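Issue 218. Parser rejects a valid record. Input:
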Amino acid sequence: MYLVIHGPNLNLLGKREPEVYGNLTLEDINQQLKDLAVDLEIELTITQLNGEGEIVDCIHQALNDEIEGILINPGAYTHYSIAIRDAISGVEIPTVEVHLSNIYQREDFRHKSVIAPVVKGQVSGLGLNSYLLGLRGLVSEVW
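Output the parser choked on:
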């Protein structure tokens, strides 16, 4: 079983800054991930959480749920959440970080990911394909 965690404000996709994030909704992304999961012959659990503590709890719960890998878009928490970083590090479940936009082409404060040092990889700037490539990498364990 693999876990997808969408972070804060991703429930607003399709409405929020379409010039940055495109017109896809979160449900569109989830459906594409579900379709890919069928092709990859894996089970997938998908959740969207706005609260930092909720995300930490979800990552901790992944240990009990015997999750094999986590695909996470931490949203704005990417840049400052030591709590999410430590949760990922603490559970030692292979994790891939994804972003729809290229965080390195945006505002300066978005250029640093505190999550990146504790994940197996990061895919950003490819829109929907960031998620799909991230899931493929996670499942194939290319590292």
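Fixed in the parser; the record now loads. Residues 92 and 111 are 25 Å apart (CA to CA).
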